[in-house]
Amino acid sequence: MSSKRDYYEVLGVSKDASESDLKNAFRRLARKYHPDRSQEPDADSKFKEAQEAYAVLSDSQKRAQYDRFGHDGPQGFGGFGGGGFNINIEDLFGGDFFSSFFGGGGSSRSSRRSRGNDILMRHAVELSSLVEDNQIELEADLPTSCKSCEGTGAVNGEMITCSTCNGQGRVRKVVRTGPFQQQVITDCEDCSGRGKIPKSVCRDCGGTGKTIESTKIRFTIPAGSDTGTRLRMRSRGEPAPNGVGESGDLLIEVEVLEHPWFERNNTDLIMSLPVGYSDLVLGRTVTIEHIDGAPLDIKIPKNSNSGDTIEIKRRGLPSMRGKYRGDVIVLLKLFMPKKVNKLVKKQLEDMRESTSPDNFMEAIKHDAKLRRR
Ligand SMILES: [Zn+2]
Ligand SMILES: [Zn+2]
């Protein structure tokens, strides 16, 4: 027979304990014995014991088995002792394991509190501005530390001791856990854990310590940025609560506006060029303006076909680290005039014989051959 302690006894709950009784009991033990936190000499084994008991009893099927057979489960069930029990501690503590451990007054929590929030701002740019680094200077309405109270939320920064917690910033609360009473320490709600409250609340910020100010910001959008590229400006975000601690960061997310004719594929720029039948047959150079400021010469070779592409090397966008430049890729498309006058109709009729296939069957087969090559 097993000499193991009864699981209910381990958790300190009765046989008819509810799911939440079990959970609370385990939490209490986890706080007490978690190896990362506990000073108790046998914390490790105590924690494992509690973990195992909780893993079994919190699973209704296993609990039923345990209630019937005790530790010596039937064949195939393998008993409960073997292997580790994985309990998602973060889940159990609502994703806030360590602050639960510290009873709310721990360092992880307070350090998180004393940093202001990050702010995300979108900034739209033209594709053409991405050929080179782009220095931007603009004014934005951003939360800043209130000047009247220096972010404290109190007139002249004058604070008085919070009477609720006597300046401790923390209060003790008694929580009932099944048959147990437990004392937990949490942040004082009246002073948000500061221990002090404003003697009189600052009118300019309503006690928040923050006001929205038009603020000048300067940043550089690197050449080759794309929609979604984020720039981080350290400590330019929301000020820390109560004017104590680090400000958050200001994140600027780049949004590249649609270009009138280019589509982008990383550093390559893709466009289509409608050209006449004569342009395809005889060849032609079409010169257009380009995003880099220099004219772009598109050289259509003679005997080109609608659907052919022309690559113009290194006239696309630079890569983010400026190592290389992409290409411009031009897709040729046959331009269809909306209307043709009588004279043109006559000319096209004259051209028909010399420009259409002599034999369609031959042409079809030849084209298939080219396509399959
Ligand atoms: Zn207080
Ligand atoms: Zn203020």
What features would you highlight for this structure?
alpha+beta, HSP40/DNAj peptide-binding domain, 26% strand, 3 domains, 15 strands, 25% helix, 373 residues, Helix Hairpins, elongated, three-stranded mixed β-sheet, 10 helices, single chain, binds zinc ion
Give structural notes.
With 373 residues, this protein is an alpha+beta fold. The protein has three domains: 7-101, Helix Hairpins (Orthogonal Bundle), CATH 1.10.287; 119-158 and 199-256, Sandwich (HSP40/DNAj peptide-binding domain); 263-372, Urease metallochaperone UreE, N-terminal domain (HSP40/DNAj peptide-binding domain, Sandwich). 25% of the residues lie in helices and 26% in strands. The chain is built from ten helices and 15 strands. The strands form six sheets. Strands 10-11-15-14 form a four-stranded mixed sheet. Strand 10 (263-265) and strand 11 (268-275) form a beta hairpin. The radius of gyration is 37 Å and the shape is elongated. It binds zinc ion (2 copies). Residues 162, 164-165, 169, 188, 190-191, 195 line the site of one zinc ion.
